[in-house]
Amino acid sequence: MATPPVNSLPIAYQAWTSLGVPDWLNKGDNAWQMVSATLVGIQSMPGLVILYGSIVKKKWAVNSAFMALYAFAAVIICWVAWAYKMSFGEELLPFWGKAGPALGQRFLIKQAGLPATPHYFRNGGGLETAEITPFYPMGTMVWFQCVFAAIAVVILAGSVLARMNFKAWMMFVPLWLTFSYTIGAFSLWGGGFLFHWGVMDYSGGYVIHLSSGIAGFTAAYWVGPRSKKDRERFPPNNVLLTLAGAGLLWMGWAGFNGGDPYAANTDSSMAVLNTNICAATSLLVWTWLDVIFFKKPSVIGAVQGMITGLVCITPGAGLVQGWAAIVMGVLSGSVPWFSMMVLGKKLKLFQMVDDTLAVFHTHAVAGLLGGILTGLFAEPRLCALFLPVTNSKGGVYGGPGGVQILKQIVGALFIIGWNLVVTSIICVVISFIVPLRMTEEELLIGDDAVHGEEAYALWGDGEKLSIYKDDTTHHGVVSSGATQVV
């Protein structure tokens, strides 16, 4: 039966359809943005939930997975209640937006015209030109940015697994989101001073990875180390599940970087391709370094190389050419490897601070490296698509390109300094209310004492019968005995 013409349908139905699908809505861009947001969300839940639950010792599987799950849920509520507008709303300070709810009809459906854009170009002290004009509802942008905020906190959790008091974690999540994450997001993405100055962070190398890596390392210092027994031996309880979680993380990165042009366009395709090129190159380089120096290829090491490649390309995914993505992959597979496998074993600082999953190396080091390399390799025409600042380009393209590297370094120093100070303040404040660290009994028993639940009905702590003298990889027990991943 033929569909009746629109003008013959009831007036109420016509009004509903015009509101649900207004003339300005680009359904293709909106669909891709929602798919991208879902892919990024899957990276945390279930991606990192699975990875955290399997990469740790058996007695910490439930607690580690639950810390990631709780953070994901808590961030969603805080984001729509006040944090989104602090990151992408009206300016309160040059580095911070005004708090407010992102709820209600005016945020879900734009009544007329185009939805507001989160990125702006300031000229002469006033907001003049929107960087982008996405043709989709504001609710799409709220959710897309929400899953980015969530994964930042989940990544941070990797530094304090297997000893942080869960009640302290419940307090830490909203405080860090409010007073740390929103600062970096507004400064670099939401119209803050670093964005206006021309610092480039295409998809979160600084806002997410550098900030969570530095904050995680700082929190690990204040919480204190794991038990002596756990630091000496901390075998993964399920390497195959670790690969499953890592796979979700890798494939989800298509939305992480591919969604940041805010449209299903050519730059989106380039960002996705560059992401996979860099990740694959980094994984191969890390594995070969393991073979050369330790005589064994490590699965855990390969996962680490994959992650450092994904992190490194993130600040420049849609700003660099394919050949630069390969170079960045070579460096992301070697520089963090050196910082973890060499400096991590020699420097007293890394011995003193128990960063459970080596988040500092895989995210802070790789994020900083990617940000600086973006300043070196950013292609001028691609820069113009992302950041409307005159003559923005990477150092290899000559002229004023070298200035971009300086801007990238200054931007990184701001993120590092802010997270060191604010994370420390948050931890100290929480310590006056509840202990940051679990009790000695909880540290000894693990999940059963903390949650009254265990991951597997199996014997032991995921230990295995030792047949060979050397039955651990160099990644299974390094420096402090941590399984270094994520």
From TrEMBL:
GO terms for biological process: response to symbiotic fungus. One of its GO terms (cellular component) is plasma membrane. Keywords: Ammonia transport, Cell membrane, Glycoprotein, Membrane, Transmembrane, Transmembrane helix, Transport. One of its GO terms (molecular function) is ammonium channel activity. PROSITE patterns: AMMONIUM_TRANSP (PS01219). InterPro entries: Ammonium/urea_transptr (IPR029020), Ammonium_transpt (IPR001905), Ammonium_transpt_CS (IPR018047), NH4_transpt_AmtB-like_dom (IPR024041), RhesusRHD (IPR002229). It is a multi-pass membrane protein. Residues 31-456 form the Ammonium transporter AmtB-like domain. It comes from the Eukaryota. It is found in: Cell membrane. It comes from Glycine soja (Wild soybean). Its main location: membrane. The chain crosses the membrane at residues 31-53, 65-84, 142-162, 174-197, 203-224, 236-256, 268-287, 299-317, 323-344, 356-378, 409-434. Belongs to the ammonia transporter channel (TC 1.A.11.2) family. This is Ammonium transporter.
